[in-house]
Protein backbone atom coordinates (compact mmCIF):
# COMPACT_ATOMS: atom_id res chain seq x y z
CA UNK A 1 0.00 0.00 0.00
CA UNK A 2 1.34 3.38 -0.98
CA UNK A 3 2.35 5.70 1.85
CA UNK A 4 0.36 8.93 1.69
CA UNK A 5 1.22 12.51 2.47
CA UNK A 6 0.03 13.49 5.95
CA UNK A 7 -1.69 16.61 4.64
CA UNK A 8 -5.40 15.86 4.83
CA UNK A 9 -6.15 18.56 7.38
CA UNK A 10 -3.98 21.13 5.66
CA UNK A 11 -5.56 20.66 2.24
CA UNK A 12 -8.88 21.82 3.66
CA UNK A 13 -7.46 25.21 4.63
CA UNK A 14 -8.51 28.26 2.61
CA UNK A 15 -6.10 29.62 0.05
CA UNK A 16 -5.12 33.26 0.57
CA UNK A 17 -3.67 33.99 -2.86
CA UNK A 18 -4.05 37.28 -4.68
CA UNK A 19 -4.80 39.27 -1.54
CA UNK A 20 -3.64 42.76 -0.54
CA UNK A 21 -0.07 41.59 0.09
CA UNK A 22 0.55 41.29 -3.65
CA UNK A 23 2.39 44.03 -5.52
CA UNK A 24 2.14 45.26 -9.12
CA UNK A 25 4.64 44.09 -11.68
CA UNK A 26 6.84 46.80 -13.12
CA UNK A 27 5.67 45.50 -16.51
CA UNK A 28 2.37 43.92 -17.56
CA UNK A 29 1.79 40.17 -17.79
CA UNK A 30 -0.93 38.17 -19.45
CA UNK A 31 -2.38 34.69 -18.95
CA UNK A 32 -1.98 31.99 -21.60
CA UNK A 33 -4.65 32.01 -24.30
CA UNK A 34 -7.27 29.29 -24.64
CA UNK A 35 -5.13 27.73 -27.40
CA UNK A 36 -2.10 27.24 -25.13
CA UNK A 37 -1.41 23.77 -23.77
CA UNK A 38 2.15 24.14 -22.42
CA UNK A 39 4.21 26.59 -20.39
CA UNK A 40 7.99 26.78 -20.61
CA UNK A 41 10.82 29.23 -19.95
CA UNK A 42 13.17 30.57 -22.62
CA UNK A 43 15.16 33.59 -23.71
CA UNK A 44 13.82 33.28 -27.26
CA UNK A 45 11.81 36.49 -26.91
CA UNK A 46 15.14 38.18 -27.79
CA UNK A 47 16.84 38.20 -31.16
CA UNK A 48 20.16 37.02 -29.76
CA UNK A 49 20.74 34.15 -27.30
CA UNK A 50 22.01 34.70 -23.79
CA UNK A 51 19.24 37.02 -22.59
CA UNK A 52 17.25 36.29 -19.39
CA UNK A 53 14.42 33.79 -19.72
CA UNK A 54 10.76 34.77 -19.78
CA UNK A 55 7.64 32.70 -19.21
CA UNK A 56 6.17 31.50 -22.52
CA UNK A 57 3.24 29.38 -23.68
CA UNK A 58 2.78 27.10 -26.68
CA UNK A 59 -0.19 25.65 -28.52
CA UNK A 60 -0.67 21.95 -29.31
CA UNK A 61 1.20 21.82 -32.62
CA UNK A 62 3.93 24.27 -31.63
CA UNK A 63 2.92 26.90 -34.20
CA UNK A 64 2.00 29.69 -31.77
CA UNK A 65 4.35 30.97 -29.07
CA UNK A 66 3.11 33.50 -26.50
CA UNK A 67 5.43 35.51 -24.24
CA UNK A 68 3.52 36.04 -20.99
CA UNK A 69 5.99 38.19 -19.04
CA UNK A 70 8.48 41.01 -19.65
CA UNK A 71 10.50 40.64 -16.49
CA UNK A 72 13.85 40.57 -18.31
CA UNK A 73 13.30 44.13 -19.53
CA UNK A 74 12.14 45.54 -16.19
CA UNK A 75 14.12 48.13 -14.20
CA UNK A 76 15.32 45.27 -12.00
CA UNK A 77 15.40 42.38 -14.48
CA UNK A 78 14.78 38.77 -13.56
CA UNK A 79 15.44 35.39 -15.14
CA UNK A 80 12.87 32.56 -14.97
CA UNK A 81 14.31 29.20 -13.91
CA UNK A 82 11.24 27.00 -13.37
CA UNK A 83 7.45 27.32 -13.34
CA UNK A 84 4.54 25.34 -11.88
CA UNK A 85 1.08 26.27 -13.19
CA UNK A 86 -1.99 26.27 -10.96
CA UNK A 87 -5.15 24.49 -12.14
CA UNK A 88 -6.83 27.79 -13.08
CA UNK A 89 -4.12 28.58 -15.72
CA UNK A 90 -3.88 32.23 -14.62
CA UNK A 91 -1.64 31.71 -11.59
CA UNK A 92 1.80 30.17 -11.37
CA UNK A 93 4.49 29.49 -8.82
CA UNK A 94 7.74 30.61 -10.42
CA UNK A 95 11.37 30.23 -9.38
CA UNK A 96 13.38 33.22 -10.56
CA UNK A 97 16.87 34.58 -10.25
CA UNK A 98 18.59 37.82 -11.22
CA UNK A 99 20.94 38.01 -14.24
CA UNK A 100 24.51 37.79 -13.02
CA UNK A 101 23.56 36.45 -9.57
CA UNK A 102 25.76 33.83 -7.94
CA UNK A 103 24.95 30.19 -8.62
CA UNK A 104 21.96 28.98 -6.60
CA UNK A 105 20.64 32.48 -5.82
CA UNK A 106 16.94 32.12 -6.59
CA UNK A 107 13.58 32.79 -4.98
CA UNK A 108 9.97 31.61 -5.20
CA UNK A 109 7.23 33.95 -6.46
CA UNK A 110 3.46 33.62 -6.63
CA UNK A 111 2.29 35.28 -9.86
CA UNK A 112 -1.22 36.13 -11.01
CA UNK A 113 -0.72 36.62 -14.74
CA UNK A 114 -4.26 37.87 -15.38
CA UNK A 115 -3.96 40.67 -12.79
CA UNK A 116 -0.26 41.47 -13.36
CA UNK A 117 0.56 41.09 -9.67
CA UNK A 118 3.15 39.07 -7.83
CA UNK A 119 4.32 38.19 -4.32
CA UNK A 120 7.71 36.92 -3.28
CA UNK A 121 6.74 33.92 -1.17
CA UNK A 122 9.89 33.36 0.86
CA UNK A 123 12.41 36.21 1.04
CA UNK A 124 16.01 35.11 1.61
CA UNK A 125 15.25 31.42 0.96
CA UNK A 126 16.84 29.28 -1.74
CA UNK A 127 14.02 27.34 -3.41
CA UNK A 128 15.15 24.70 -5.90
CA UNK A 129 11.84 23.28 -7.15
CA UNK A 130 8.08 23.74 -6.74
CA UNK A 131 4.83 21.99 -7.65
CA UNK A 132 1.17 23.00 -7.35
CA UNK A 133 -1.43 20.59 -5.98
CA UNK A 134 -4.07 19.44 -8.50
CA UNK A 135 -6.80 21.46 -6.75
CA UNK A 136 -4.62 24.55 -6.29
CA UNK A 137 -4.88 24.52 -2.49
CA UNK A 138 -1.20 23.95 -1.62
CA UNK A 139 2.32 23.74 -3.00
CA UNK A 140 5.27 21.44 -2.30
CA UNK A 141 8.78 22.74 -2.78
CA UNK A 142 12.39 21.82 -2.15
CA UNK A 143 14.35 24.40 -0.14
CA UNK A 144 17.79 24.56 1.45
CA UNK A 145 17.41 24.31 5.21
CA UNK A 146 18.77 27.33 7.09
CA UNK A 147 22.45 27.10 8.06
CA UNK A 148 22.92 23.91 6.00
CA UNK A 149 23.55 22.94 2.38
CA UNK A 150 20.83 20.29 2.47
CA UNK A 151 17.43 20.38 0.80
CA UNK A 152 14.22 19.22 2.50
CA UNK A 153 10.68 19.05 1.15
CA UNK A 154 8.20 21.62 2.45
CA UNK A 155 4.44 22.11 2.27
CA UNK A 156 2.61 25.45 2.42
CA UNK A 157 -0.38 27.30 1.10
CA UNK A 158 0.44 29.00 -2.23
CA UNK A 159 1.09 32.30 -0.39
CA UNK A 160 3.66 30.65 1.91
CA UNK A 161 1.47 30.44 5.01
CA UNK A 162 1.17 27.30 7.20
CA UNK A 163 4.59 26.03 6.13
CA UNK A 164 5.56 22.50 7.22
CA UNK A 165 8.86 20.68 6.78
CA UNK A 166 7.76 17.28 5.48
CA UNK A 167 11.05 15.43 5.72
CA UNK A 168 13.60 16.84 8.22
CA UNK A 169 16.08 14.09 7.43
CA UNK A 170 19.83 14.51 7.76
CA UNK A 171 22.00 13.96 5.74
CA UNK A 172 19.38 12.73 3.23
CA UNK A 173 18.57 15.34 0.53
CA UNK A 174 15.11 15.58 -1.04
CA UNK A 175 14.64 17.46 -4.33
CA UNK A 176 12.24 18.02 -7.24
CA UNK A 177 9.00 16.67 -5.76
CA UNK A 178 5.89 16.23 -7.90
CA UNK A 179 2.40 15.66 -6.49
CA UNK A 180 0.19 12.84 -7.78
CA UNK A 181 -2.99 13.72 -9.76
CA UNK A 182 -5.17 13.24 -6.67
CA UNK A 183 -3.16 15.33 -4.19
CA UNK A 184 -2.49 12.35 -1.90
CA UNK A 185 1.21 11.59 -2.27
CA UNK A 186 4.35 12.68 -4.10
CA UNK A 187 7.47 11.39 -5.80
CA UNK A 188 10.85 13.04 -5.54
CA UNK A 189 14.57 12.50 -6.06
CA UNK A 190 16.50 11.64 -2.90
CA UNK A 191 20.27 11.67 -2.40
CA UNK A 192 21.72 9.69 0.51
CA UNK A 193 25.22 9.48 1.98
CA UNK A 194 26.47 7.61 -1.11
CA UNK A 195 25.77 10.66 -3.26
CA UNK A 196 23.53 8.70 -5.64
CA UNK A 197 20.14 10.16 -6.57
CA UNK A 198 17.19 7.77 -6.69
CA UNK A 199 13.44 8.19 -7.12
CA UNK A 200 11.31 7.81 -3.98
CA UNK A 201 7.61 7.68 -3.20
CA UNK A 202 6.77 9.85 -0.17
CA UNK A 203 7.91 9.47 2.45
CA UNK A 204 10.83 7.17 1.62
CA UNK A 205 9.87 4.17 -0.50
CA UNK A 206 12.60 3.68 -3.11
CA UNK A 207 11.26 3.20 -6.64
CA UNK A 208 14.64 3.04 -8.40
CA UNK A 209 17.89 1.48 -7.20
CA UNK A 210 20.64 3.47 -8.93
CA UNK A 211 24.31 2.39 -9.06
CA UNK A 212 26.67 1.90 -6.14
CA UNK A 213 28.78 4.76 -7.50
CA UNK A 214 29.40 6.69 -10.71
CA UNK A 215 31.33 9.56 -12.26
CA UNK A 216 30.09 12.97 -11.10
CA UNK A 217 28.58 15.51 -13.49
CA UNK A 218 30.42 18.74 -12.61
CA UNK A 219 28.46 21.55 -10.92
CA UNK A 220 25.48 19.27 -10.27
CA UNK A 221 24.49 16.86 -7.46
CA UNK A 222 24.31 13.93 -9.92
CA UNK A 223 26.50 10.92 -10.70
CA UNK A 224 26.26 8.63 -13.73
CA UNK A 225 23.43 6.16 -13.18
CA UNK A 226 21.54 8.49 -10.86
CA UNK A 227 17.85 9.25 -11.38
CA UNK A 228 16.13 12.64 -11.25
CA UNK A 229 13.09 14.72 -12.20
CA UNK A 230 10.16 12.32 -11.56
CA UNK A 231 6.55 13.09 -12.53
CA UNK A 232 3.33 11.07 -12.29
CA UNK A 233 1.31 9.85 -15.24
CA UNK A 234 -2.18 11.42 -15.56
CA UNK A 235 -3.78 8.38 -13.88
CA UNK A 236 -1.17 8.21 -11.10
CA UNK A 237 -0.17 4.61 -11.82
CA UNK A 238 3.27 5.31 -13.31
CA UNK A 239 6.06 7.86 -13.27
CA UNK A 240 8.42 9.27 -15.87
CA UNK A 241 11.94 10.32 -14.85
CA UNK A 242 15.40 10.85 -16.31
CA UNK A 243 18.67 8.96 -15.73
CA UNK A 244 22.20 10.33 -16.18
CA UNK A 245 24.13 8.08 -18.60
CA UNK A 246 27.29 10.11 -19.21
CA UNK A 247 29.09 13.35 -18.35
CA UNK A 248 29.87 14.50 -21.90
CA UNK A 249 27.79 16.64 -24.27
CA UNK A 250 29.56 19.89 -23.43
CA UNK A 251 29.17 19.43 -19.68
CA UNK A 252 25.38 19.06 -19.86
CA UNK A 253 25.57 15.30 -19.49
CA UNK A 254 23.64 12.71 -21.45
CA UNK A 255 20.29 11.62 -20.05
CA UNK A 256 17.68 8.96 -20.84
CA UNK A 257 13.96 9.35 -20.13
CA UNK A 258 12.22 6.31 -18.65
CA UNK A 259 8.87 5.25 -17.21
CA UNK A 260 8.08 2.96 -14.28
CA UNK A 261 4.93 1.71 -12.54
CA UNK A 262 4.77 2.87 -8.93
CA UNK A 263 3.35 -0.43 -7.65
CA UNK A 264 6.60 -2.24 -8.44
CA UNK A 265 5.04 -4.44 -11.12
CA UNK A 266 7.47 -3.38 -13.86
CA UNK A 267 11.07 -2.49 -14.53
CA UNK A 268 12.03 0.92 -15.97
CA UNK A 269 11.11 1.26 -19.65
CA UNK A 270 13.08 3.50 -22.01
CA UNK A 271 11.16 6.36 -23.61
CA UNK A 272 14.07 8.34 -25.09
CA UNK A 273 17.78 7.52 -25.23
CA UNK A 274 20.96 8.63 -26.96
CA UNK A 275 23.92 11.01 -26.35
CA UNK A 276 21.88 14.16 -25.63
CA UNK A 277 20.87 16.21 -22.61
CA UNK A 278 17.23 15.67 -21.67
CA UNK A 279 15.58 17.84 -19.04
CA UNK A 280 12.98 16.80 -16.48
CA UNK A 281 9.88 15.42 -18.24
CA UNK A 282 6.24 16.36 -17.75
CA UNK A 283 3.42 13.89 -18.43
CA UNK A 284 -0.02 14.94 -19.61
CA UNK A 285 -2.93 13.48 -21.53
CA UNK A 286 -1.16 14.20 -24.83
CA UNK A 287 2.04 12.42 -23.79
CA UNK A 288 5.45 13.05 -22.23
CA UNK A 289 7.26 16.29 -23.02
CA UNK A 290 10.88 17.28 -22.33
CA UNK A 291 13.64 19.52 -23.66
CA UNK A 292 16.46 17.82 -25.55
CA UNK A 293 19.80 19.62 -26.13
CA UNK A 294 22.75 18.69 -28.35
CA UNK A 295 25.83 20.69 -27.33
CA UNK A 296 27.55 19.86 -30.64
CA UNK A 297 24.84 21.41 -32.82
CA UNK A 298 23.99 24.07 -30.18
CA UNK A 299 20.33 23.27 -30.68
CA UNK A 300 17.50 22.50 -28.25
CA UNK A 301 14.21 20.85 -29.11
CA UNK A 302 10.96 20.62 -27.17
CA UNK A 303 10.00 16.99 -27.76
CA UNK A 304 6.67 15.20 -27.30
CA UNK A 305 6.44 11.39 -27.23
CA UNK A 306 3.79 8.84 -26.36
CA UNK A 307 4.11 6.95 -23.08
CA UNK A 308 5.82 4.05 -24.88
CA UNK A 309 8.30 6.37 -26.61
CA UNK A 310 6.66 6.25 -30.05
CA UNK A 311 5.22 9.15 -32.04
CA UNK A 312 8.13 11.52 -31.47
CA UNK A 313 7.11 15.09 -32.38
CA UNK A 314 9.34 18.17 -32.17
CA UNK A 315 7.10 21.02 -31.02
CA UNK A 316 9.78 23.71 -31.02
CA UNK A 317 13.44 24.17 -31.97
CA UNK A 318 15.71 26.87 -30.52
CA UNK A 319 19.37 27.71 -30.34
CA UNK A 320 20.71 26.12 -27.14
CA UNK A 321 21.84 29.57 -25.93
CA UNK A 322 18.21 30.56 -25.35
CA UNK A 323 18.12 28.03 -22.47
CA UNK A 324 14.67 26.58 -23.13
CA UNK A 325 13.42 24.52 -20.18
CA UNK A 326 10.78 23.64 -17.57
CA UNK A 327 7.97 22.50 -19.91
CA UNK A 328 4.72 22.04 -17.99
CA UNK A 329 1.30 20.99 -19.26
CA UNK A 330 -1.51 23.40 -18.48
CA UNK A 331 -4.67 22.14 -16.79
CA UNK A 332 -7.11 20.67 -19.26
CA UNK A 333 -4.40 19.94 -21.84
Helix/strand layout:
Layout: H1 8-11, E1 23-24, E2 36-42, E3 54-59, E4 65-67, E5 79-85, E6 91-97, E7 107-112, E8 117-120, E9 127-132, E10 139-144, E11 151-156, E12 164-165, E13 173-179, E14 186-191, E15 197-201, E16 205-206, E17 227-232, E18 238-246, E19 254-261, E20 269-272, E21 277-278, E22 282-284, E23 287-294, E24 299-305, E25 313-319, E26 325-329
Strand order of the largest sheet: 1-8-7-6-5
* CATH architecture call: 6 Propeller
Number of domains: 1
Uncertain runs: 1-21
Envelope shape: globular
Let me know the largest β-sheet: 5 strands, antiparallel
State the helicity in percent bands.
Answer: under 10%
How far is the N terminus from the C terminus? 30 Å
- The CATH topology label is Neuraminidase
Order of helices and strands: HEEEEEEEEEEEEEEEEEEEEEEEEEE
| Rg of Cα set | 19 Å
How many helices?
Answer: 1
Supply the CATH class. Answer: Mainly Beta
Considering the protein shown, what is the CATH homologous superfamily? TolB, C-terminal domain
Strand content: 35-45%
Specify the structural class: mainly beta
Give the integer mean of the pLDDT values: 90
Number of strands: 26
